[in-house]
Specification:
Elements (H helix, E strand, L loop, with lengths): L4 H11 L6 E3 L8 E6 L5 E4 L4 E14 L2 H15 L3 E3 L4 E7 L4 E5 L5 E14 L3
Parallel strand pairs: 1-2
Antiparallel strand pairs: 2-4, 3-4, 4-8, 5-6, 6-8, 7-8
């Protein structure tokens, strides 16, 4: 199985204007926070004798903010910027990402910070041996 989360995080950090640093798996304690995480489920991967692998996996982006509009607008930037565009993550790994959900409400904290998320399906192609 090819792990794409670290390279996806780097791509999003480098190619989008993020209102907070992008983290993996958890949101920070700060009022403004963004994280990416692999969704639970069974990813699908086919392996070939030449070392090529193709697969599908899902991930979500979570945005926490004191402003509902800030969180939702950031997620729309990701949705619009990642929609069915094939791009390389590394020299051997390329992905195509399809948004699966619109920004949707997750929770609100006692101090009125809100968390919204959007989910993505990702097809990947890895050309080489791991």
């Amino acid at each position: 199985m090819v792990s794409i989360i670290a390279d996806s995080k780097d791509y999003i950090s480098d190619n989008f204007t993020n209102y907070a640093p992008l983290q993996t798996d958890v949101l920070s304690d700060d009022s403004e926070s963004i994280c990416i995480r692999i969704d639970p489920g069974r990813p699908v991967e086919k392996r070939y004798l030449n070392g090529t692998r193709v697969g599908v996996t899902d991930f979500s982006l979570y945005c926490k903010s004191a402003s509902k509009a800030t969180a939702i607008n950031q997620l729309w930037d990701y949705i619009n910027g990642l929609d069915l565009i094939k791009f390389p993550l590394t020299d051997n790994l390329s992905i195509t990402t399809e948004p699966q959900t619109e920004p949707h409400f997750i929770s609100k904290s006692e101090n009125n910070e809100v968390i919204y998320a959007a989910s993505f399906r990702t097809w990947y192609e890895y050309n080489g041996r791991q």
